[in-house]
């Protein structure tokens, strides 16, 4: 179901990636300058979007060509969900070894093998239902990912049926912080080190309430054993960025709350570093979540925010 009037000609189909119990599609983009042992980013679209739509809007393949990054775009089928959403709240599609999470894990394994990806440099991001499924993947396969970025998403385990999903999206009934921690801890027997987490949310989002960002941060604060209070608060491209560092000074969680932004992925399409294309759920606000997320993961020449040293004088 296309949002945009044009479609990408960059993505190619990934076939024969496993048993595919979630019955998902898979597209990839591997630029010509992709190096041996290069990184992989898994990109999950939102409801009513396709992988092509999300790629065009977010600019991921443009950045991939610039920086030598392989991309994997899992896709939902309308036969699985009538609005093309990932089924992040269904029991059979939110557990390790089952349904959509297992399909995505199988895709990742195939791309890593086919293109000599460094298995320690696999990352995942998504928006809306794709953001919620990103939470699922980070919790159920934490050993696979070095980092994750959740845009307008939901904390893992917050809902187990459609009614609960709607309530959580509207900001009602989120589990307690201790329960959020227990949900991730109980998803696998993994003991760490855990993926770094980037959280993005519009404060005027009427589809996924901004309180969900706080729940995601709280869930991963418990996992990463960092304080409730951020290590520092700074301004990036005119928007507040909160940062939490671990005991070694490594940034393990960041949060961007984009003022006056509704439901969608923040983009900045103009200028020499512009990426993406404005459209439905792809919102021109003057900051590129794609570029900043890649910076955070150390995938661009700009450096890695995850190696910042803590500065506590301006903590809020």
TrEMBL record:
Keyword Hydrolase: yes
InterPro entries named in the record: AB_hydrolase_fold, Esterase_phb, Plant_Biomass_Hydrol_Est
Pfam families, A to Z: Esterase_PHB (PF10503)
Gene Ontology cellular-component terms listed: extracellular region
GO molecular function: hydrolase activity
Keywords, sorted A to Z: Hydrolase, Signal
Gene3D superfamilies (UniProt xref): alpha/beta hydrolase (3.40.50.1820)
NCBIfam families, A to Z: esterase_phb (TIGR01840)
Protein name per Swiss-Prot or TrEMBL: Esterase, PHB depolymerase family
Lineage of producing organism: Bacteria, Pseudomonadati, Pseudomonadota, Alphaproteobacteria, Rhodobacterales
């Amino acid at each position: 179901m296309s949002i945009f009037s044009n479609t990408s000609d960059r993505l190619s189909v990934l076939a024969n990636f496993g048993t595919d119990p979630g019955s998902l599609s898979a597209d990839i983009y591997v630029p010509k300058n992709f190096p041996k042992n290069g990184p992989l980013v898994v990109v999950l679209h939102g409801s009513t979007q396709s992988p092509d739509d999300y790629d065009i809007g977010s600019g991921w393949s443009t950045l991939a060509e610039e920086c030598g990054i392989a991309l994997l775009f899992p896709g939902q089928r309308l036969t699985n969900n009538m609005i093309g959403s990932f089924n992040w709240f269904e029991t059979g599609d939110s557990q390790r070894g089952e349904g959509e999470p297992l399909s995505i894990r199988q895709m990742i394994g195939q791309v890593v093998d086919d293109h000599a990806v460094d298995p320690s440099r696999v990352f995942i991001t998504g928006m809306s239902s794709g953001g919620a499924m990103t939470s699922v993947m980070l919790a159920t396969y934490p050993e696979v990912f070095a980092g994750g970025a959740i845009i307008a998403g939901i904390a893992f385990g917050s809902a187990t049926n459609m009614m609960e999903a709607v309530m959580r999206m509207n900001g009602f009934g989120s589990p307690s912080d201790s329960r959020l921690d227990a949900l991730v801890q109980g998803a696998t027997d993994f003991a760490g080190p855990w993926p770094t987490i980037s959280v993005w949310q519009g404060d005027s989002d009427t589809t996924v309430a901004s309180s969900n960002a706080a729940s995601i941060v709280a869930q991963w604060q418990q996992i990463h054993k960092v304080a409730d209070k951020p290590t520092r608060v700074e301004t990036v491209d005119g928007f507040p960025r909160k940062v939490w560092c671990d005991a070694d000074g490594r940034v393990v969680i960041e949060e961007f709350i984009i003022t006056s932004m509704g439901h969608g992925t923040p983009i900045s399409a103009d200028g020499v570093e512009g990426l993406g294309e404005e459209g439905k759920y792809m919102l021109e606000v003057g900051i590129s979540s794609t570029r900043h997320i890649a910076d955070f993961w150390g995938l661009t020449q700009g450096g890695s925010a995850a190696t910042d040293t803590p500065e506590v004088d301006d903590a809020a």
